[in-house]
Amino acid sequence: MADPWTFAGPVTELGTGPAAVTLVDESTFAISGGAGDIVPGGAQGLFVRDTRILSRFEVLVDGGRTESLSAVTVDPFSATFVSRTLPAPGRADSTLMVFRSRHVGQGMREELTVRNFADEATSCRVEVVVDADFADLFAVKEGRAGTEPHRGEVGVEVVGGRGDGARSLLLTYRRGAVSRGVEIRTAGATAAVPGLITYDIVVPARSRWTTCLEIGPVIDGVAIDPKYRCGRPVEQATPSERLAEWRRQVPQVETDHPGLKQVIARSAEDLGALRIFDPDFPERVVVAAGAPWFMTVFGRDSLLTAWMALLVDPELAVGVLQTLARFQGRDVDPRHDEEPGRILHEMRFGEAGSLSLGGGSIYYGTADATPLFVMLLGELRRWGVARDVVDELLPNADRAIEWIEQFGDADGDGYVEYQRATDRGLANQGWKDSWDGIRYGDGRVAQAPIALCEVQAYTYGAYLARAHFAFEAGDTSAYERFRARAAQLKTAFNRDFWLEDRGWFAVGLDADKRPIDSLTSNIGHCLWAGIVDEDKAERVAGTLTSPEMTTGWGLRTLSSANGGYNPISYHCGSVWPHDTAIVAAGLARYGFDAAAHQLIFGLFDAASAQGGRLPELFSGLDRSELPVPVAYPTSCSPQAWAAASPLLCLRTLLRLDPWIPYGKAWLSPSLADGIGYLKVAGIPLAGSRVTIEVGNEVPGGVSVTGLPPEIEVVHRPRRPSTAV
What we know:
By secondary structure, this protein is of the alpha+beta class.
């Protein structure tokens, strides 16, 4: 079997259609149907650290399933499922309702309530059917769970049986030295046998019956308590407390634009839920890439998400940088594409015997995470956050630069290329990392080694960031060296990647240094990083906002006029919110406000049409064809950089670019037609909470309060030059 990061086949759908409910907390997530049941045969289940510890969890009343009425999700990690028993023959209504209050976190707690609305007591049997296949997440994702021979020993035992009805079902799995299990604990049960817990109950008239079940993982024989325990207030559990704290610190938005406030609130909520806290370093917060398939650390995703979320919580960027530095490549290991100084692509828990992030396996095959690491470190300095931590990470930035110049640029031509070391690695190692993600204009798939345009742009940004660190330290020699490297790269890039007859940049250079000539969204990232020459920017902006690229909801990853275009493909014509948001920021950087607004408000409309939440990606079909975005069937939702995208859009509208070490904050809000007022209160900046208010009724059009007096607000229409 190929390693999980190389899988290129179809992904298993959740098997429940639009009614699927996904709850997440760190590396725990649960997927169920609308009534709360987890049924076998698909992707549903309770997953903890890449292992499905429950593959079946069904509630039956008198032997039958209940009828789903509603599923209410207040928090990303909790839901209440409401259903009813099926009416008796000849009757339209039922008098029994079932309420299931679920909280996930290092396992799961389920409070089960049966309510009787009849005028007389009702006797019934409630059964909870459970099973665990301990399938690896990737076996589930790829549809292999249940189709391959079971390679381990499984067991089940019943613990308890006291008169109070306290019982546990313990399901176990062992393969060699690896041992996994799940314990389902309950009270008040009439009987428990392998796979089934039974309650024979009498529910008084107009009353209710309640019980509670705890589901906890067992790792190498050690039982792990779920974060939510029966009998304890849910608001005192760690996930609830952390989310409450997060909500208190998230900036508040007031605006007259319909939907914008909802979208920003939904984004902040999802981002808060996707945070991961390493028990070895609980103060270091990182972010999982997305549910359900990527509830783990991804280098590129974490870095870009943290950048986009600076407006909300710069400490997220601090934790991401510290964590990625901790696992920065040290050795040359072709099996994992590891090289000294390289920033990881993906971390997986697999058969790790602990809850620590360091217990799993790491794959390093990405070309862009390493320069992005240096870029984000530089941006964190501009925000004036955690100066001591940033200083401590400068040696890691230098190791990253060394990787760029030695391993990244293996042929010495000045460009960072990628090529996997073995057939077990990713064929494409930019953000479009599917096997067919990089194509020529005629649709042919390009083969590595490839120098991607956005990777060169990020490298340019990394050189500039490192130059500024050298300038601060008074290291004139290093400053001149990195400024020169940036200037040389910019000159070469605008010469070798530019397609004069097309009016856009090539998405990359192939092994023969020939341009890969398709029109893609990647070139908008080059605007964002500032590598594009001024005399080319207008033509680039025009191509990016052409009908072939824009859908009205966002930006296509590949032009509809190119060979290989497919609006329901992963990377060849779909719309990715983070991609659209970055390109909008790039357009605004070069002064193309109208083009930036077109993308931003299209994205806001797409979110509003999907309940305020942006998924990982959606179809590239044009808005004129259908009144709502068409979903991509296996898109992650919530997903980190999709959740953070509206936050970057909000920053782009404010055009806020602080440079706190130099005592300045550039600010020049640009609001589109249809939005006359915008207030963002509580922006963490320079050790304070800053409020920015924009509108016709605001004196001078813009008001800034809360900024320390030593920081000067500079009203300038574009991002300040990166030159000192």
